[in-house]
Write a structure and sequence with these properties.
The complex is a heterodimer.
Chain A (H helix, E strand, L loop, with lengths): L2 H13 L2 H37 L5 E6 L21 H10 L3 E16 L2 E10 L3 H5 L3 E4 L4 H5 L4 E4 L1 H7 L10 E4 L2 E9 L14 E5 H9 L6 E6 L5 H15 L10 E5 H44 L1 H9 L4 H38 L7 H27 L3 H6 L2
Parallel strand pairs in A: 3-8, 5-7
Antiparallel strand pairs in A: 1-9, 1-10, 2-3, 2-6, 2-9, 4-7, 5-8, 6-7
Helix pairs in contact in A: 1-11, 2-9, 2-11, 2-12, 3-8, 9-11, 9-12, 11-12
Chain B lengths: L3 E14 L2 E14 L3 E5 L6 H8 L7 E6 L2 E2 L5 H11 E4 L11 H10 L6 H14 L15 H13 L5 E5 L7 H17 L3 E6 L2 H4 L4 E6 L2 E7 L6 H7 L14
Parallel strand pairs in B: 3-8, 3-9, 6-7, 7-8
Antiparallel strand pairs in B: 1-2, 1-4, 4-5, 9-10
Helix pairs in contact in B: 3-4, 3-5, 4-5, 5-6, 6-8
The chains are: A alpha+beta, B alpha/beta.
Chain lengths: 408, 256
């Protein structure tokens, strides 16, 4: 008996009981379909959180000053009050770190921006031209400022959409216009693309970007930096990049072995992994529920195979009388069980993928059918077939041909 | 010297029923040569079913020797017995035992599926050939429920023939059939026996069936009490011809 013969035989036997076969299969179809749909919903939400966070720059590293130093009265100094980060640190990271591609010094202040009769409270961020790359921000019009603008502390700026909506009305083109921030005039040379709110509900369009030197010298009158933003070469290397940055900064700041860091380095990846673990939990829960339905489907197969063995006792007896060995009978019934589960599995995969598409189409939930979930559920259902089909098949193979032939 | 197909010697079979031991066969010995048509007779309880099971390699004797076409059955494993049943024995049962919703052709092909020596290509050819031998070639695509009892039994005989066994073992093969159909089946078996030289062992309790065979072995209480050559073998074909013509259909009354 070869595989072809077996599946031919099993297929014939199954087709003799179409309704029963399809009902048994339905258990598996629903099981596999549920696993794939549920996992796709979980994965979809994970993916959407991830891509939202990635829009903030998933390989972005933020360096802030930090200190346990207290001033008079025991009050600790917040990071913005510290003067330990300097342009030298930014340059050192830029030049020495291998896993860092872009570095941008950053300072920021709040103030009132004025255009003619309109004004609006917003924040002014002083950064370098590479900041746009680090954050993966785009301009919709105009040009970004350059390193020359940084060197000369040029009074040029890029406006966010919210700022434009508040101080340029009637569709006025802001490019080339001069606005004032805390009485200092800035020439608008570019407009930032709309970015919307970030995951924490902050409006990312309510800001003005200008060369950090301009903000340092002309607005804030400081020499130190409040933040340094850097981009790791990719998301995976952000841990390595973090370590590099720490080493560079410690040596730059001449910190002794016993001294704590006077800065903190944070990566976006940490945030992503926190957020992902939440949706991972969701995936696990949904999968567990779906897996239970697959298990129930498997028990359905076992049940039907037992009934089938009892019902076909006489057939088994005959097959044995005309020369079927125990193993032939075992394989025949096992093949039937596997055929049910694999056919059910294939249909289940189709059902699962279609259901995932319907969920996206009608409920607007993000879904993502992963290859691994399809393969996994398919393998599980094939294994289910073998597992739950084995005992009934073994029962059949151990029947006594004499008894089986006389069975009514 | 004719080739011995069956050679049984002092065959005993005991069953343990709780604390009691039932001795179904108490030492049965006889031989069957190739080309013989033997009926094994006996009333119920005579041990003929037990003997049939042993002859059919479905059961093993407790004691004694059984050689089937030279093979010592007692020393064989379950799988080897299955192979022996497949190659050497063609079973014909009282209740036909055809697979339902399976065409006559596929029913006949069934033993070939368990015979690794027959390639898939030859299966259909052999099955058709066997169906031709029982005169049912035109009905090979019929399902069992589309065939009469006699036709179903012919399909079963074709199934028994398909692996070219050394012996056809029939168990009350006419038990479910009316007299006319019984004679038809017996006539077919006689033809297979005389024209193709098939060895046939036919277990029955009906004496009027035994007259068609060349030899009758009678069992009683687990022992052979008679083993007689039938000098005057009746032809089933003639018996069939001698049957009064049945008037199945009542004459249609003409309505005025």
């Amino acid at each position: 008996m070869n595989v072809f013969n077996l599946s031919h035989l099993a297929g014939k036997a199954l087709l003799r009981n179409k309704i029963r076969t399809s009902l048994t299969m339905l258990g598996i179809i629903i099981g596999v379909g549920a696993v794939i749909t549920m996992v796709s919903i979980g994965e979809g939400s994970k993916q959407s959180i991830r891509s939202q966070l990635s829009s903030m720059g998933s390989n972005m590293i933020t360096i802030r000053p930090f200190s346990n130093i207290t001033v008079g009265g025991g009050a600790r100094v917040g990071s913005s009050g510290l003067r330990t980060l300097t342009i030298k640190d930014a340059l050192a990271i830029q030049n020495q770190a291998e896993f860092i591609t872009d570095v941008s010094p950053a300072v920021s202040t709040n103030g009132q921006v004025i255009n003619a009769a309109l004004n609006w409270p917003t924040s002014l961020q002083g950064v370098s031209p590479s900041y746009l790359d680090i954050r993966d921000w785009k301009l919709v019009s105009g040009i970004p400022f350059t390193d020359d603008d940084v060197a000369s502390a040029a009074k040029v700026c890029l406006l966010g959409q919210t700022v434009i909506n508040n101080i340029f009305i009637n569709g006025e083109d802001p490019i080339g216009k001069t606005i004032r921030f805390n009485k200092i005039p800035f020439k608008v040379i570019g407009v930032l693309d709309k970015k919307g709110e970030n995951t924490f509900g902050q409006d990312q369009d309510d800001m003005i970007l200008a060369p950090y030197t301009t903000v340092q010298k002309r607005i804030m009158a400081i020499t130190w930096l409040q933040n340094i933003y850097a981009a790791a070469t990719d998301e995976k290397s952000s841990d390595t990049a973090t370590k590099e940055v720490k080493v560079i900064l410690r040596s730059n700041h001449k910190l002794k072995y016993t001294e704590d860091d006077d800065f903190t380095v944070r990566t976006q990846a940490e945030l992503i992994s926190t957020m992902s673990s939440t949706s991972q939990l969701l995936t696990v829960l949904l999968t567990a529920i779906a897996a239970i339905s697959l298990l129930v489907g498997g028990i359905g197969i076992m049940n039907i195979m037992y009934v089938s063995v009892t019902e076909r006792t006489k057939e088994i007896g005959l097959r044995m009388a005309i020369g079927a060995r125990g193993v032939d009978i075992l394989l025949q019934f096992l093949t039937e069980a596997i055929l049910i589960s694999i056919t059910g599995g294939v249909l289940g995969v189709i059902l699962g993928i279609s259901a995932a598409k319907l969920v996206t189409a009608f409920l607007a939930w993000p879904t993502l059918v992963t290859q691994s979930s399809v393969i996994l559920s398919f393998v599980v259902c094939a294994v289910t077939g073998v597992f739950f089909g084995y005992y009934p098949a073994q029962k059949a193979s151990r029947l006594d041909p004499i008894e089986a032939l006389r069975y009514e | 010297m004719a080739n011995k197909i069956l050679d049984i010697n002092e065959l005993k079979r005991e069953f343990k029923m709780g604390s009691e031991t039932v001795r179904a066969l108490k030492g049965v010995s006889f031989t069957v040569d190739a080309g013989e048509f033997v009926t094994i007779m006996g009333s119920s309880g005579s041990g003929k079913t037990t003997l049939l099971n042993i002859l059919g390699c479905l059961d093993q004797p407790t004691e004694g020797k059984y050689l089937l076409d030279g093979a010592d059955v007692k020393s064989l494993s379950r799988n080897e017995l299955a192979k022996l049943r497949n190659r050497k024995i063609g079973f014909v049962f009282q209740s036909y035992n055809l697979l339902a919703r399976t065409s006559a052709l596929e029913n006949v092909e069934l033993p070939l599926l368990y015979n690794a020596d027959v390639p898939a290509k030859e299966r259909k050819e052999k099955a058709i050939h066997a169906l031709e031998a029982v005169g049912l070639a035109e009905r090979m695509n019929h399902m069992p429920n589309q065939l009469s009892g006699g036709q179903q039994q012919r399909v079963a005989i074709a199934r028994a023939l398909v692996n070219e066994p050394v012996m056809i073992l029939a168990d009350e093969a006419t038990g479910n059939l009316d007299t006319k159909t019984s004679y038809e089946i017996m006539s077919l078996l006689q033809e297979l026996n005389s024209k193709q030289g098939k060895t046939i062992v036919f277990v029955t309790h009906e004496p009027d069936i035994a007259v068609f065979s060349s030899r009758t072995v009678t069992l009683k209480d687990g022992r052979v009490i008679k083993d007689l050559k039938n000098e005057n073998v009746k032809s089933a074909k003639e018996a069939l011809a001698a049957l009064p013509v049945e008037k199945d259909e009542p004459p249609i009354k003409e309505t005025a």
